[in-house]
Specification:
Elements: E1 2-8, E2 15-16, E3 23-25, H1 52-61, E4 65-68, E5 92-94, E6 99-101, H2 107-117, E7 120-125, H3 132-143, H4 149-156, E8 167-170, H5 185-202, E9 207-210, H6 223-232, E10 238-245, H7 252-256, H8 258-280, E11 287-295, H9 298-305, H10 326-341, E12 346-352, E13 361-363, E14 369-371, H11 375-384, E15 388-390, E16 392-395, E17 398-401, E18 405-408, E19 410-417, E20 422-429, E21 436-441, E22 453-459, E23 479-480, E24 485-487, E25 490-495, E26 499-506
Helix pairs in contact: 3-4, 3-5, 5-6, 6-8, 8-10, 10-11
Bound molecules: alpha-L-arabinofuranose.
Length: 507
């Protein structure tokens, strides 16, 4: 058994947690919408065609904000197609995913569904093939109460009350050569600045997200952020980060340490934001919207699933339906730990995505919906990470990785809910061989722990590649970790190999 210590500094300034960090993402891609959240013929479907079993799982997941409608999809999207009488909505080609979009579900239907899952709308505008005017039109249609052509059109389309979207993404991954309308940082920065200023003329209270790099492995990373923020700094509130991780070439050791990469990525984007702030002598603070993050076996998509053919445009094909393992769930839990640790600057995030497409929730047409392994760390972190993040330090054994050199075997973060006094500790053990006894110390030493009770749940399995599937949907679930206890002023818990754990301490 190895030993690690988490030293929680109650004297340090706490970081208030923005619950938008527990956001997600629904793109018109594969079976995310059709045969995912929406399946009118399903036995659980409600009057509007939405699957109630999926609504229940999304609610259980604890998602606060949902980014919509893309993703790469948005760069070919005409929002007008997705509103108005359904029988008049056109079917279009979706070039991003080589599919056909029927527009049966559009802005109105999606907003109605969001009310069912108690989540807020985060809308993306198309700055790939469209521009400022179309973004303004969508804003007017979505948010203006009445008195203009587009506000009245919304009312005549059945929705008097505006959608009231507060967060808006100024395009998607505009640095990526795969993006329709891909631009240089300079061209995109100018377009984003013009669009942001115009949108703020409609409503200065909007929160605007400018596109950062689609990954920090992009050759333009860093310079892209500097140039784009050079154009937009005082007109936006967030710059986006996107990161996907996967186990490559059987290197589970490096994969389990993916959060080391996310930590460094966030630090570098923050440094670039603050460099631009300094150059501009600005008082304004730009934060990070980590609006795409997850494990994604992208190689599988590129080499197996990709759809081609000039006459082959399926509706809602099975795309990006990754089946997640216990190890994937441990990485997802650790990525959340990384973002919580950076909660001073990561003020919004979107797990990409939500249903069927690289998703914590899977569905079968006419059949069940179930939780993937990655569902659990997200749901439990969203449930128990309340209040503030309390700065802490991990003292842990280290081990070697091919991708990141020596890494801490244990990573952890702590939140304190000031309203209830509850302390929550989220921890991973990245070792494949050793259990680790984690001791949580709360200085000042020598005083008794104020807590009287601890509960803990751990996600692990003797097979780190075990999954939940249609045939065995409950193979993996978090189990109560009975090793968690109060020992004097400290909390002690045993973390099995390749595991994610939450410990909750109450008065
Ligand atoms: O989430 C899947 C895709 O990943 C999104 O459409 C795109 O923005 C990113 O490359």
């Amino acid at each position: 058994m190895l030993h690690a210590r988490l030293i929680v500094d109650h004297t340090a300034t706490r970081i208030p947690l923005d619950r938008r960090i527990f956001g997600s993402f629904v793109e018109h891609l594969g079976r995310a919408v059709y045969d995912g959240i929406y399946e009118p013929a399903h036995p659980t479907a409600d009057g509007a065609g939405f699957r109630r079993d999926v609504i229940d799982l999304v609610t259980e997941l604890g998602v606060t904000t949902i980014r919509y409608p893309g993703g790469n999809f948005v760069s070919g999207f005409r929002w007008e197609d997705s509103v108005g009488p359904r029988e008049q909505r056109p079917t279009r080609l979706d070039l991003a995913w080589h599919s056909r979009e029927t527009n049966e579900v559009g802005l109105h239907e999606f907003a109605d569904w969001l009310e069912r899952v108690d989540s807020d709308l985060m809308l993306a505008v198309n700055l790939g093939t469209r521009g400022t005017l179309e973004a303004l039109d969508l804003l007017e249609y979505a948010n203006l109460e009445s008195g203009t052509a587009l506000a009245e059109l919304r009312t005549s389309n059945g929705r008097e009350r505006p959608f009231g979207a507060r967060m808006w993404c100024l395009g998607n991954e505009m640095d990526g050569p795969w993006q329709i309308g891909h631009r240089s940082a300079d061209d995109y920065g100018k377009l984003a600045a013009q669009t942001a200023r115009a949108m703020r003329m409609v409503d200065p209270e909007l929160e605007l997200v400018v596109c950062g790099s689609s990954s920090w492995s992009m050759p333009t990373f860093g310079e892209w952020e500097r140039v784009v923020l050079g154009h937009t700094y005082d007109d936006v509130d967030f710059i986006s980060c996107h990161a996907y991780y996967e186990e490559r070439d059987g290197d589970l050791t490096s994969f389990l340490a993916s959060a080391v990469d996310m930590d460094a990525f966030i630090d570098q984007v923050v440094a670039t934001i603050d460099h631009v702030k300094a150059v501009k002598r600005s008082d304004h603070v730009v934060n990070i919207s980590f609006d795409e993050w997850n494990v994604w076996y992208n190689d599988r998509f590129e080499n197996v699933d990709k759809i081609t053919g000039a006459q082959n445009w399926p509706v809602a094909p099975r795309l990006l339906e990754d089946v997640y393992t216990v190890a994937d769930a441990v990485v997802v839990g650790n990525l959340l730990i990384s973002m919580l640790r950076h909660a001073d600057r990561v003020r919004s995030a979107s797990l990409a995505q939500l249903v069927n497409v690289i998703a914590p929730i899977m569905t079968e047409p006419g059949g069940p919906a179930w939780r993937q392994t990655t569902f659990f760390p997200f749901a439990l972190t969203s449930r128990f990470a309340r209040g503030s993040v309390v700065p802490s330090r991990v003292e842990s054994p280290q081990h070697a990785t091919r991708a990141y050199g020596d890494v801490l075997t244990v990573d952890a973060v702590t939140t304190l809910d000031e309203a209830t006094g509850r302390l929550s500790v989220f921890a991973v053990n990245r070792s494949q061989t050793d259990s680790v006894e984690l001791t949580v110390t709360m200085p000042p030493r020598g005083t008794r722990s104020p807590f009287t009770h601890v509960d803990s749940w751990t996600l692990n399995d003797s097979d780190p590649h075990a999954t939940n599937t249609l045939d065995a949907p409950e193979r993996i679930r978090p189990k109560e970790n009975t090793s968690a206890s109060l020992r004097g002023e400290e909390i002690v818990v045993t973390l099995p190999p390749v595991s994610w754990t939450v410990v909750v301490a109450d008065h």
